[in-house]
C-alpha cells in the first residue's frame, strides 16, 4: 500500500493512496490513529482497513497537507558515505564500517514544509536518500531476516549545513539544524517495490537543474545489511527511521559549490515512492512553529 499521513479539515489522519485520491483510514477505524504507528503496532489492522478502503469515500490529495509518517520516532539513525562516488567526491577513504550519526526530532519536518537556511550559515546542502520506517523491532537481527522488519520506505532530504558539519568529527551540528530534514510525503510498503528497494532511480533537482541522479543499487550497505549492523549495538523499535545515505552530486563537492538558496524549491525523488519537495526559506524570515 501507499500511505500519506496528513492534515485536512478533518484533522491529522492516515490515508491510503488511490491515484490522485486518498482514503481516510483513520476515519474507518479509530485504532489507526494520526500516524503510521497504529498500523505498525496493531496486528491485523492493516488488512482490516485495506478491505474497508475498497468501498470508502475518496478525498482529493490536494486538500491534504503532508505530516510526518511517524510523528515522534524513537530514533533517527542515518548512514553517511554509502555510495562510493559520493565518498570519493567528499575526499574520504572507503570505509569498512558505515559512518553512522543521529538526528534529533526538531531537525525534521514534513515534505512541503520550508527547509530553513539558518542565520549563521549560507552553506545549506541537499542530500536525497532512501528512508526506512521500521516495523517490527529487535536486537541482533540477522541480515537474512532483516527485511521482515521494514514496514515502509519513504524519501528523505538530509539537509546539511556543511561548515557546521566540518566543525567536529561527529557531524552532529551540521546535521541537526532545525527544519533541515524533510521526510515523505508518501510511504510505500515493501510489497510494492523490489526486494530491499534496490534498483530504484534516486534523484534531486531544483527546477530543471539535475543535482543528483543515481540508483539505490549503488549503495554499499543494503537495507538488510544496515538493519543487521545497527541492531548489533541498539535495539530497533517500531517507528524508528533509518536513512540510507546519499549518492554523488551534493552541493559542497561541485565547483563552485552549489548551495540551496531562499526562493528555490528542492525536489528529491525516488522511483516508485514519490517526490519530497521543500521550498527554501531563510531563518530570519520564518516565524517559528510552536515548540514541540
Automatic annotation (TrEMBL):
UniProt keyword terms in alphabetical order: Metal-binding
Domain Fumarylacetoacetase-like C-terminal: start-end pairs: 75-279
GO biological process, one term: small molecule metabolic process
InterPro entries: FAH, Fumarylacetoacetase-like_C, Fumarylacetoacetase_C_sf
Listed GO MF terms: catalytic activity; metal ion binding
UniProt xrefs under PANTHER family: FUMARYLACETOACETATE HYDROLASE DOMAIN-CONTAINING PROTEIN 2A, FUMARYLACETOACETATE HYDROLASE DOMAIN-CONTAINING PROTEIN 2A-RELATED
Family membership: Belongs to the FAH family.
Protein name: 2-keto-4-pentenoate hydratase/2-oxohepta-3-ene-1,7-dioic acid hydratase in catechol pathway
Organism, as annotated: Yoonia sediminilitoris
Upper lineage: Bacteria, Pseudomonadati, Pseudomonadota, Alphaproteobacteria, Rhodobacterales
Amino acid at each position: 500500500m501507499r500511505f500519506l499521513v496528513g492534515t485536512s479539515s478533518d484533522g491529522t489522519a492516515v490515508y491510503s493512496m488511490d491515484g490522485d485520491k486518498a482514503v481516510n483510514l483513520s476515519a474507518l477505524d479509530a485504532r489507526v490513529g494520526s500516524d503510521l504507528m497504529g498500523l505498525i503496532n496493531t496486528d491485523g489492522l492493516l488488512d482490516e482497513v485495506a478491505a474497508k478502503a475498497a468501498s470508502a469515500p475518496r478525498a482529493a490529495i490536494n486538500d491534504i497537507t503532508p505530516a510526518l509518517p511517524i510523528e515522534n520516532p524513537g530514533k533517527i539513525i542515518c548512514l553517511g558515505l554509502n555510495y562510493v562516488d559520493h565518498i570519493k567526491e567528499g575526499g574520504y577513504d572507503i570505509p569498512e564500517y558505515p559512518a553512522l550519526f543521529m538526528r534529533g526530532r526538531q531537525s525534521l519536518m514534513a515534505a512541503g514544509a520550508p527547509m530553513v537556511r539558518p542565520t549563521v550559515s549560507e552553506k545549506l546542502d541537499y542530500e536525497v536518500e532512501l528512508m526506512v520506517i521500521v516495523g517490527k523491532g529487535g536486537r541482533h537481527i540477522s541480515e537474512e531476516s532483516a527485511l521482515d522488519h521494514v514496514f515502509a520506505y519513504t524519501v528523505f532530504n538530509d539537509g546539511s549545513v556543511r561548515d557546521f558539519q566540518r566543525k567536529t568529527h561527529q557531524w552532529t551540528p551540521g546535521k541537526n539544524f532545525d527544519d533541515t530534514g524533510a521526510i515523505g510525503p508518501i510511504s510505500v510498503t515493501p510489497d510494492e517495490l523490489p526486494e530491499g528497494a534496490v534498483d530504484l532511480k534516486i534523484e534531486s533537482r531544483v527546477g530543471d537543474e539535475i543535482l543528483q541522479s543515481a540508483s539505490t543499487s549503488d549503495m554499499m550497505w543494503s537495507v538488510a545489511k544496515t538493519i543487521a549492523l545497527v541492531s548489533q549495538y541498539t535495539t530497533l523499535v517500531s517507528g524508528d527511521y533509518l536513512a540510507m545515505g546519499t549518492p554523488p552530486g551534493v552541493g559542497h563537492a561541485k565547483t563552485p559549490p552549489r548551495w540551496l538558496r531562499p526562493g528555490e524549491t528542492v525536489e528529491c525523488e525516488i522511483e516508485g515512492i514519490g517526490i519530497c519537495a521543500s521550498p527554501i526559506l531563510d531563518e530570519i524570515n520564518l516565524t517559528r512553529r510552536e515548540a514541540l
